[in-house]
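hiii so um. not sure if this is the right channel but i have a protein structure encoded as tokens and i wanna go backwards to a sequence. like what aa goes where. can anyone help
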């Protein structure tokens, strides 16, 4: 092994994908159940920040003003410069490829079988509804009915929730729906191993092994510390490899671990912004998962990612006066799409997540 840092990056990243190719003969492991705190919160959240009026203030506020305008515009629409730009931060990658030849070959050999899940086809008379934007379904029936017409393609999505609310299942179900419709999909996990992800999907009979064997699916497990140390190279190479793979959907589980690698808040904002912007530029519909704040179930742990994404889904625990605890989902925002603002109950079963769109929480 070479002594240079770039070569070390090559080795661990290539090894991650080489290990993926050898995982066919591994023993299945039981998918672990998630458990978490039961936040007591009930709010009428919309497309605006859940932090309005909070004494703690928005993490983006400083003397120079917020880089995110109140009109809800996406920060990705301006290609001039990052609002967090650091003149000392290198652009693109700094040398050697972090992606091994085998993985690059897999990307190059895979082709899109054509098309992919469109919107629900429902017509709306709302003048603000733009039916010309290509749309896709999440793949969760009750939730898709809450999204009037589907998620605009190439949007950046985040699901926010505490432990046990089903964020990983949410992402896997999102990919499964795309795979069923002939799309190419990528799952990047910073929390679990490749085998754990495959076992979770196999327990639900989603056929991820077959999709992976047909080069329609890539499941990649990365160490969050190594990813943070090599983020410049990953950010530079990932869009090109996504394009070569012709990926339609991508899931990163979870962005919270990446955020935790940076102690300096300004550095954290810069890195997360640049990373999400690179995903946006890649032209793939991306879903990120994020841990909820301990103090506010409607916000992410660091209060950053919900400002950088086009759609926010909040997964949370709710408790009635009788102390019955249930799971509930709320759509906090979706740019360029009409959607319900109601909070609806859901369950996590062996078939995945089921949202009861016609039911109330209690």
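sure thing!! here u go:
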């Amino acid at each position: 092994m070479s002594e240079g840092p770039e070569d070390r990056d090559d080795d661990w990243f290539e090894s991650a994908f080489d290990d993926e190719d050898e995982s066919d003969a591994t023993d299945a492991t039981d998918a672990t159940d998630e458990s978490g705190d039961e936040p007591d919160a009930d709010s009428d959240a919309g497309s605006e920040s859940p932090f309005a009026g909070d004494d703690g203030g928005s993490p983006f506020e400083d003397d120079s003003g917020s880089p995110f305008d109140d009109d809800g515009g996406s920060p990705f629409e301006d290609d001039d410069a990052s609002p967090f730009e650091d003149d000392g931060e290198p652009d693109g990658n700094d040398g050697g490829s972090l992606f091994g030849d085998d993985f690059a070959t897999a990307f190059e050999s895979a082709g899109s079988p054509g098309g992919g899940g469109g919107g629900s086809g429902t017509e709306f008379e709302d003048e603000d509804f733009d039916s010309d934007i290509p749309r896709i379904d999440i793949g969760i029936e009750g939730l898709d009915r809450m999204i009037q017409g589907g998620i605009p393609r190439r949007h950046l999505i985040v699901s926010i929730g505490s432990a046990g609310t089903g964020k990983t299942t949410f992402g896997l179900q999102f990919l499964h729906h795309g795979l069923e419709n002939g799309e190419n999909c990528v799952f990047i996990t910073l929390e679990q191993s490749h085998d754990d992800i495959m076992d979770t999907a196999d327990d639900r009979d989603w056929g991820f092994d077959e999709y992976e064997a047909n080069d329609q699916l890539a499941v990649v497990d990365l160490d969050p510390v190594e990813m943070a140390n090599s983020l410049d190279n990953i950010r530079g190479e990932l869009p090109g490899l996504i394009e070569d793979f012709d990926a339609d959907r991508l899931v990163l589980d979870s962005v919270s671990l990446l955020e935790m690698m940076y102690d300096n808040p300004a550095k954290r904002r810069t890195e997360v912004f640049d990373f999400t912007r690179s995903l946006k530029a890649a032209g793939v519909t991306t879903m990120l998962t994020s841990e909820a704040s301990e103090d506010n179930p409607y916000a992410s742990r660091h209060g950053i990612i919900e400002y950088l994404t086009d759609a926010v889904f909040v997964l949370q625990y709710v408790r009635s006066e009788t102390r019955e605890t249930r799971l509930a989902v709320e759509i906090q925002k979706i740019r360029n799409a009409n959607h319900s603002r109601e909070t609806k109950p859901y369950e996590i079963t062996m078939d995945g997540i089921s949202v009861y769109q016609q039911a109330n929480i209690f």
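oh and The longest strand covers residues 325-334.
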